Amino acid sequence: MRFYDFARAAASLVGLLALLAITPAAALAHCDGVDGPVVAAARQALDAGNVNLVLLWVQPAGEPEVRTAFDHALAVRKLGSGAKELADRYFFETVVRVHRAGEGAPYTGLKPAGRDLGPAIPAADHAIEHGSATQLRELLMRSLDAGLQERFRRVTAAKDFRAGDVDAGRRFVKAYVEFVHYVEGVSQAAAGPASPHEHNAPEPAHAHN
Question: 12 has which bridge partners?
């Protein structure tokens, strides 16, 4: 088997492994958006008067703060439409901030609805919603294959340099390092959680009546 064919086969294998490694953390990447899943759960909790509907998005350590904010928001909501809007915003910001703190991520404010999240995150949400990862798998495979082929092209184009040609040798080393780091990074991502965001995915909080 030629090395190029081996590389393509390896890309397909890694793509499949990456698909198996997909978790609900994929949806957390846009957790700070007004149209994201955290705010959607917070809005549902307020409308239903049931804080448990949003507690799954926060770690147990952050639950007391969210419960307190929830009670305050419900009380202020009763004061009128303007107060309701302010109370809701306050509660959304609190929940998102506490949620991100539980992930070890900074809170930089609520992000507007409709922002460009790239193709992967909407595809991941679509897969979960419709119970099929086929389109998502195809998207990931195309992206991974394109990235691998481009880096492989660079390193193979640079490898046949004259001994003693330092500049050409350095160009090869640069291409080689980029190629190996790409393969290593994809492999590590497919093997398991590779970021604090994944390691700290929210665990269901204890339900209270």
Answer: none
33 in Cβ contact with 112 (< 8 Å): yes
| Boundaries of every domain in the chain | 1-21+123-209, 30-116
Q: Is the pTM of this model over 0.70?
A: no
Phi then psi for residue 111, to 5 deg, are: -95, 150
pLDDT at 101 over 50: yes
How many whole angstroms separate alpha carbon 2 and alpha carbon 13?
17
Orientation of helix 37-48 relative to helix 63-77, angle to 10°:
50
Report the Cα 4 to chain-centroid distance in Å: 31
Answer yes or no: are the C-beta atoms of 99 and 197 closer than 8 Å.
Answer: no
Which tens digits make up the pLDDT trace of 140-171?
Answer: 888 888 899 999 999 999 999 999 889 999 99
Helix, strand, or coil here: 33? strand
